[in-house]
Design goal:
The complex is a heterodimer of chains A (286) and B (268). By secondary structure, chain A is α/β, with parallel strands linked by helices. Chain A has helices spanning 81-89, 132-142, 148-158, 174-186, 204-221, 232-238, 256-262, 268-276; strands at 40-49, 55-65, 70-74, 96-101, 104-105, 117-120, 192-196, 224-229, 241-246, 249-254. Chain A has one domain: Rossmann fold.
Chain lengths: 286, 268
């Protein structure tokens, strides 16, 4: 019997201090669209591969993400995080169960809500020969952003893109590329933002900068963020709730503070290692 | 913004994306013109040689240039469609696109428009060269050329849809098929010779292909100076069936990709 997670509807716990904000996120003049209390709702979600479904990448998981919160999806390699996010994006068809965003079943009615969602992932890139401005123009048009020139100028200021706005995306450093990917992810001012390892391969300074920006965006917009990450300090800083996965199943969940207390550890890194190595809660590390 | 205006806006955005790409890369533009020019010159000089042999050979030679130019519409149209699609896979951008409100039909419409634009970049200068070098004015065919073009471009889209679907499902390891699939049509569609040349058992297969009727129509126009309306209608009817089947095949490949998870893993 797989573990079925039932997230307690705890109030969001914004646990990150306000970081210095070199670039402020401009509040959007239009209030966020009224949405369900849980903009992301996963119910019995399963993905099996193989002719007879013998490889279970995601095994009957359920969780909900409260509106305006940041939820971390944690787990080692092969835990099923990216598969779960791919099903949430509607790019992968579930074998069973449902992945809903803003009440839309992403396997069947994703087009109802795609204009209010965006994502960032290291598994996709922006066309490298196109300049940053050209890429943002194209994605802005695809999302139907009104006042696109002004929006690009706004993003350029918020994310410090102005110096390389007219440079080909392929000629940017890793940090600059991440900022551009973030600009693409925010071009339509999404209510729901899916992030798959948003700070992977970034230096600590740039990674910190990205986290600060995500925090500011969440606060300014009231957006809901789902974040898959291997970076435990990042999770501790950003996430209100954490869903821990192993071998396609949810093995635990709660706020970082609750999980650290539950496992009798000092950091999320220790909790992660306990889960990854199958140690029971409170069991001493060898 | 109305739903139709939003759709057109998204189609335009994607066309803009491919246009920016073409603008930024002169090798891509040269590639559009280079091979059609080489082919046209080769067949053109063959026609010049044949023209010196006999009047019949001269007429047959003229059909060669016509065949080369029309084949190029079919081949380049398909390549234009498929390469635009491949650009998304090469740049690992497909996941980004699939997460936008872009609909599948809008994506395909943009690919079709791009195939015409890419074709025009190569075809127009080459057809003008054919006039300058060999006195063969394809544009002089007028409405007949429009009928040939419309039929061939729709066939090219059908082939492009299937080829792109195969790559979508199987990854870039199947990319070679994009370049080789259209050549399956070369012997069967009777590009350079009449259908009667084929063995009797192969002729029905050939006649079931839309471009066969176009090339037969082109030869009728040049050799007999008559526009074969019946052939064009056959081509149009068959094209409608092939195009519908190709769209269904592409959608099936897309569904299979969604099941297999290959939309995010676009490597080999």
């Amino acid at each position: 019997m797989p573990f079925v997670n039932r997230m307690q509807p705890e109030p969001p716990e914004p646990n990150a201090p306000d970081a210095p904000a070199p670039y402020a996120v401009a509040p959007h003049p239009i209030a966020p669209h009224p949405i369900a209390p849980h903009p992301i709702a996963v119910d019995g979600l399963t993905k099996a591969y193989g002719r007879s479904g013998e490889v279970l990448a995601v095994d009957h998981i359920s969780f909900k993400v409260p509106r305006g919160s940041v939820t971390g999806l944690l787990g080692g390699n092969g835990a099923g995080k990216t598969t779960t996010i791919a099903m949430l994006m509607g790019l992968l068809t579930p074998s069973a169960g449902s992945a809903r965003i803003l009440c839309a079943d992403m396997a069947h009615e994703r087009h109802r809500v795609l204009h209010r969602i965006n994502f960032e992932s290291p598994y996709v890139e922006m066309p490298m020969r196109l300049t940053v401005r050209q890429n943002l123009t194209i994605f802005g048009r695809l999302y139907g952003v009104e006042g696109l020139k002004a929006r690009i100028a706004e993003l350029a200021e918020e994310l410090a893109l102005a110096d390389f706005l007219d440079r080909p995306s392929g000629k940017l450093s890793a940090g600059q590329k991440t900022r551009v990917a973030l600009a693409k992810a925010m071009v339509n001012r999404p209510d729901v933002l899916l992030l798959d390892e948003p700070t992977a391969s970034l230096d600590p300074d740039t990674a910190d900068w990205v986290r600060s920006h995500l925090e500011r965006y969440r606060k300014a917009r009231g957006a809901t963020l789902l974040l898959a990450s291997h970076n435990m300090p990042e999770v501790e800083r950003l996430c209100d709730n954490v869903v821990m996965m192993k071998a396609g199943q949810i093995v635990d969940e709660g706020s970082p503070r609750q999980l650290i207390a539950r496992y009798g550890r000092h950091t999320m890194e220790d909790v992660f290692l306990d889960v990854a190595r199958g140690r029971r809660k409170g069991e001493a590390a060898p | 913004m109305s739903p139709l205006a939003a759709s057109l806006n998204r189609i335009f955005a994607l066309i803009l994306r491919y246009w920016y790409l073409l603008q930024s890369s002169w090798p891509r533009i040269v590639d559009l013109v280079y091979w059609p020019t080489v082919q046209m010159l080769m067949w053109g000089f063959l026609q010049v040689y044949l023209a010196g042999q006999s009047s019949t050979a001269a007429l047959v030679g003229a059909t060669f240039i016509g065949s080369v130019l029309l084949w190029d519409i079919l081949f380049r149209g398909q390549i234009g469609f498929s390469v635009s699609f491949l650009e998304e896979m090469w740049s690992r951008n497909l996941g980004n696109l699939m997460m936008t409100p872009l609909r599948v039909w809008e994506f395909l419409a943009a690919l079709m428009v791009m195939s015409v634009i890419r074709l025009a970049i190569g075809f127009v200068p080459v057809s003008l060269l054919a006039i300058a070098f060999f006195g063969f004015n394809l544009w002089g065919l007028g409405l007949a050329l429009a009928a040939f073009f419309a039929n061939l471009i729709v066939t090219s889209w059908s082939v492009g849809l299937v080829a792109s679907g195969v790559v979508l499902r199987n990854g870039l390891g199947a990319e070679a098929l994009v370049w080789s699939i259209p050549f399956l049509l070369l012997p069967l569609a009777c590009v350079y010779y009449p259908v009667e040349v084929l063995p009797a058992w192969l002729q029905p297969i050939s006649l079931a292909l839309p471009p066969t009727h176009v090339f037969e129509g082109m030869r009728a126009l040049i050799l007999e100076e008559r526009f074969d309306v019946g052939a064009m209608l056959w081509a149009a009817g068959l094209n409608a069936l092939f195009f519908l089947a190709a769209i269904l095949a592409f959608l099936a490949f897309l569904r299979a990709s969604r099941r297999a998870g290959s939309l995010l893993q676009v490597g080999e």
